[in-house]
Design a protein that fits this description.
Blueprint (H helix, E strand, L loop, with lengths): L7 H7 L1 E4 L4 E2 L19 H7 L1 E8 L2 E7 L3 H13 L3 E12 L5 H9 L3 E2 L2 H6 L22 E8 L1 E2 L3 H6 L5 H4 E2 L2 E3 L4 E3 L5 H4 L7 E2 L5 E4 L5 E11 L10 E14 L5 H9 L6 E5 L2 H5 L12 E5 L21 E16 L5 H27 L1
Antiparallel strand pairs: 1-2, 1-18, 3-4, 4-18, 5-14, 6-12, 7-11, 7-14, 8-9, 10-13, 15-18, 16-17
Length: 378
């Protein structure tokens, strides 16, 4: 028996999650085999290739926004979770304090250092292996080596500026002018090359360094100093937030606005004010529309009518549903398979590469699961 294929209009309507004044409807996906009698919803690779799309809205080194269209929510959410917690990055893990006479306690300063985002030659960062910590089951771990540990040093001492007496006579009170190293910044972290790291991290452009050199670490006054050695290792955000490559990674569904009955004149202007600027536009009723029987525009030629311009800008505040004059004239919703991602990188990866890294990790996880299933069925 040949399968029934729903019309394109019906398939599009099934993708809309209804947003009402106090409820949300049609939440669950229904495009799976057996839900609609006579319809074949078996997943097809060729159809997925033809319908899946990626559209970039904003692309900056540390900030990207793009849409994934034609995906199931489980896959989109898997990418989001991988972005947050499973892409390995480099961060300071061990801090060896030789001397710290500043007012910042050792453990507080170590915590601040661990949260400093680091960057370096991308090829070198990929070459580094993850350090395996000693455990009860594995007392030795992987051991410290040039391919799993980056060494950095912080050795600063606060002293008076060469022209301190002159500035003091003038009444200068800015400690950054009166003293050297009054403020300790992330740019004061010194990278120490070791072994094969020369092949990847040699030179100022390739060296491991802070993404933001002006991060304030501590404040000192003459006579105080900080002397520390730090070991940086690769880890994932699931272990500690400092290893997460993103400041935020989130998505939202594309809003849907359908005007079911004409909204004209003052009501149209009020309707537009219920949404962020650019979502709803005002256009004049054309003679053709006014002459069409049953259009709802009869006798309103030249009046302003509300039209949907750009739902991407909408926040789905439901403000229009509060007003009785719009009751039954508009339907709000979200498109279930249109995910608008917002990814803000901390700097170790460019924002556009982060999603590609999440795809690579997803492929590795799928391959591991496939091997596991193969072993079970063997």
């Amino acid at each position: 028996m040949p399968s029934i294929r729903a019309s394109q209009e019906e398939r599009d309507a099934r993708k809309i999650v209804g947003v009402n004044a106090e409820t949300v409807t049609n939440v669950t996906s229904t495009d799976f085999p057996g839900h609609y009698p006579g319809e074949d919803h078996e997943w097809d690779l060729e159809e997925f290739r033809n319908t899946f799309r990626v559209k970039f809205h904003k692309l900056q080194p540390l900030d990207a926004s793009f849409s994934l269209i034609g995906l199931d929510a489980s896959i989109a959410n898997a990418f989001r979770r991988i972005l947050l917690a499973e892409i390995p990055t480099l961060a300071i893990e061990y801090v060896f304090v030789h001397n710290n006479t500043s007012i910042v306690q050792d453990e507080v300063l170590a915590q601040r250092l661990g949260l400093v985002p680091l960057t370096g030659n991308p090829a070198g960062l990929r070459w580094l292996r993850q350090y395996r910590k000693p455990t009860d089951e594995d007392p030795e771990g992987s051991g410290v080596a040039d391919n799993n540990t980056i060494v950095m040093k912080l050795d600063v001492e606060c002293t008076k500026a060469d022209n301190y007496d002159e500035l003091n006579k003038k009444g200068e009170d800015d400690p950054r002018l009166l003293y050297k190293h009054a403020h300790v910044y992330a740019k004061d972290l010194q990278f120490v090359l070791s072994g094969r790291q020369n092949n990847y991290f040699e030179g100022e452009a390739n060296a491991v360094r802070s993404v933001h050199p002006d991060i304030l670490l501590a404040k000192m006054r003459p006579g105080q100093c900080i002397n520390m050695e730090m070991h940086c290792v690769k880890g994932i955000g699931a272990d500690h937030a400092k290893f997460s490559p993103v400041a935020t990674a989130s998505y939202r569904l594309l809003p849907s606005i359908t005007i079911t009955q004409p909204i004209l004149g003052p009501d149209a202007r009020k309707f537009a004010r219920c949404f962020p600027r650019g979502v709803i536009g005002l256009e004049e009723v054309t003679p053709e529309e006014a002459a069409r029987t049953g259009s709802g525009y009869e006798g309103h030629e030249g009046e302003k009518k509300a039209v949907v311009r750009n739902t991407f800008k909408d926040t789905v505040s439901r403000e229009c549903l509060r007003h009785p004059e719009f009751e039954g004239k508009v339907k709000l919703g979200r498109v279930r398979d249109h995910f608008i991602f917002m990814v803000e990188s901390t700097g170790q990866y460019p924002s556009d590469e982060l999603f590609l890294e999440s795809v690579r990790i997803m492929k590795e996880k799928c391959a591991a699961m496939k091997r596991g299933l193969g072993n079970i069925l063997r």
